[in-house]
Design brief:
Elements: E1 3-8, H1 12-22, E2 28-34, H2 37-47, E3 51-54, H3 63-73, E4 78-83, H4 88-97, E5 101-104, H5 109-120, E6 125-126, H6 128-139, H7 156-166, H8 171-178, H9 182-196, H10 201-210
Parallel strand pairs: 1-2, 1-3, 3-4, 4-5, 5-6
Helix pairs in contact: 2-3, 3-4, 4-10, 7-9, 7-10, 8-9
């Protein structure tokens, strides 16, 4: 089977480098390119790829949002994140959005090829250093009292804000969706973090996954 690939990156030089790398793979074919989330959706529908290589930093929406939208509409298309971001906040959000792989741009070419082949057959590939984050989180069975706090400690509006924050939405996006001001969103966010004793967005995402607020 020839793996049909869609490249999504707003830097033409990156896409050019990927084309050179993949051109040497007999079982892979680049069937499309996109420089934005909107183009990614359009090209996915047009070329019907097996695997999408998705950058996170896109000019219109994040690769996280693009991945979530693509997986909702084309569930059989598998996405591999190819990004400069190696922090756990982006890592967990990308997995939650439905990505089948996560590879940093500094990785060796062989790592990327392995990730593409794994995604094409429905498997998951995580770069070793990032996979350790998932293992650490899974085996971190110690729960602080604050992590055990019931969601009943939050107001209905705070739960709405928590859900959207965990899904990767910005303060402005949440404000628009809930018809409130960005300052009000920030106040809700501060209250949520205080009530749950969370200190970063990545902690908030992991909390939301553990509590079943968003699907992993």
């Amino acid at each position: 089977m020839t793996i049909r690939l869609l490249l999504v990156d707003d830097h033409a030089v990156v896409r050019s480098g990927l084309k050179m790398l993949i051109s040497g793979q007999k079982d892979m074919e680049i069937v499309g390119e996109a420089a934005s989330a909107e183009e990614a959706m359009t090209e996915t529908e047009r070329v019907q790829p097996n695997v999408i290589l998705m950058d996170i930093g896109l000019p219109d929406k994040t690769g996280i949002e693009a991945t979530r939208a693509i997986k909702a509409r084309f569930p059989d298309v598998n996405v591999v994140a190819l990004t400069i971001h190696e922090d756990e906040e982006y890592f967990f959000q990308m997995l939650n959005a439905g990505a089948s792989g996560y590879v940093p741009k500094r990785a060796a070419p062989e790592e990327l090829i392995t990730a593409i082949k794994a995604a094409a057959i429905g498997e998951v590939y995580l770069y070793p250093s990032l996979a350790k984050l998932l293992v650490r989180d899974f085996f971190n069975t110690e729960r602080t009292a604050e992590e055990k706090v019931s969601l009943d400690g939050l107001t209905e509006r705070e739960r709405e804000v928590l859900t959207r924050l965990a899904e990767g939405a910005s303060n402005d996006e949440i404000a628009e969706a809930l018809v409130i001001s960005p300052k009000t969103v920030e106040r809700h966010r501060e209250n949520i973090m205080r009530k749950l004793s969370l200190h970063s967005r990545s902690e908030l995402v992991r909390y939301a996954i553990r509590k079943g607020i968003i699907k992993a």
